[in-house]
Amino acid sequence: MEIPDPAKERLLYLLKLLEKGGTLTLTSTHIESLTGWSRDSIRKDISYLAADIGSTSGYDVFALKNAIKKALHLDRKRKICIVGLGRLGSAYLNFSAFQYGDFELAAGFDANVNRVEILSSPVPLYPTYKMGEIIGWFSIEISLLCVPEDQAQSAADKLISAGIRGIVNFAPVILKAPPEIAVRNVYIIDDLRSLSIRIPSENN
Amino acid sequence: MEIPDPAKERLLYLLKLLEKGGTLTLTSTHIESLTGWSRDSIRKDISYLAADIGSTSGYDVFALKNAIKKALHLDRKRKICIVGLGRLGSAYLNFSAFQYGDFELAAGFDANVNRVEILSSPVPLYPTYKMGEIIGWFSIEISLLCVPEDQAQSAADKLISAGIRGIVNFAPVILKAPPEIAVRNVYIIDDLRSLSIRIPSENN
DNA sequence: CCATGTGAATGCGTTCACAGCC
DNA sequence: GGCTGTGAACGCATTCACATGG
């Protein structure tokens, strides 16, 4: 059974919830109170997993986590890299979740050779022109794009021709990329707008 | 006519696109090539705006921008604040888009009184215990929540009882909040996962 | 009563198809 | 041919309703 996209997003959020909460078992009613989604849709979503995780007394959290990870293909480590080692990029170099989590930071890139040599980092750093070989060599799938606005598109182009599959874009631009490349924009103004349209009010 | 949620999200993205591109006029076919959405749904989305912006030769970009802003209630400034003035929070204090854009930074808060007094900032800073009065006084609608993980929930509780309407949460926790409070989580691991499930592949 | 799971029914968002216009 | 705009048709996601089990 193909999982509908909205259901995938909910399952992703549910996974996050399960990873935090300390309980061993959880019912759809309980999840409803935590998320606001209907019991029915929660049961349906979980049923898409086609795994044997529910009993008459709720879901086994451990089994449910694994089933979601498996169904959404989050059950293997993926390699990532950082392009642009300014303030933001170099901060992510030492982000602890990239050292023990499911996303393994494999390399950092910057056009400034000097910066590449001077920065201390737990992973190897390279000048930008080595992106092509390194990304293929390490099988890097996703890149954080942390370069200044005016360099974002050209850096993205290099990443794409190097074979990247996904980009987390921190620059306030809309990247042009072929549809098979997954792009996600992280920019505070977008978030504020998205929140604004969800805030109900007298005059809104 | 009530605008469907998915259409709202597309319109928000379209607005961003319009604000970047320098053209004066745009057709649905052109937007299709920029976004990958179908011409049909684009026309339908825009028709929800019920504004007179399309002609036989495409849409007037200026009128379209205004119509989207109006329909999504983005046609007025909203006040925001920052809670937690560590690395991230204090960086946003001086973020230029908060000085000329549609979101006006009105205040910053931190539990550490010393930090509140020492930091230089273009907006007034207050100790946390003043949140209640200040948020009401300035009609602040949205807060950036930049405190450490273990303080996120209690800070959120204070914001909510002070009357905040939306929260951009940078902490890697799931905030408990009543449904009428809009919450948006900004956390890189979530973005990476969301990208991962959209990356097609042989073994995915 | 509580729970999961699932086919069937509902309802909503997208797509279609065509009218109207340049 | 190009374009917008829109009711109608379609298809998919959610909800319902009920079977099954403790």
What do you see in this structure?
- Two copies of one chain form a homodimer.
- Chain A is of the alpha/beta class and 204 residues long.
- Chain A folds into two domains: 5-71, Arc Repressor Mutant, subunit A (Orthogonal Bundle); 78-191, 3-Layer(aba) Sandwich (Rossmann fold), CATH 3.40.50.720.
- Chain A is 45% helix and 18% strand.
- The first copy, chain A, has a six-stranded parallel β-sheet with strand order 6-5-4-7-8-9, sandwiched between helices. Chain A has a three-stranded antiparallel β-sheet with strand order 1-3-2.
- In chain A, α7 (113-118) links the parallel β5 and β6 (125-127).
- In chain A, α1 packs antiparallel against α4.
- Chain A is elongated.
- The termini of chain A are far apart.
- The model of chain A has no long low-confidence stretch (mean pLDDT 94).
- Chain A binds a DNA duplex (22 and 22 nucleotides) through residues 4-7, 27-29, 38, 40-41, 43-44, 46-47, 54-59.
The largest β sheet of chain A comes out as: 6 strands, parallel
CATH homologous superfamily placement of the largest domain in chain A = NAD(P)-binding Rossmann-like Domain
Under the CATH scheme, which class of the largest domain in chain A? Answer: Alpha Beta
Number of strands of chain A: 9
Distance between the termini of chain A: 41 Å
The overall average pLDDT of chain A, rounded, is 94
Q: How helical, in percent, are the residues of chain A?
A: 40-55%
Regions with little confidence, pLDDT below 50 for 5+ residues of chain A = none
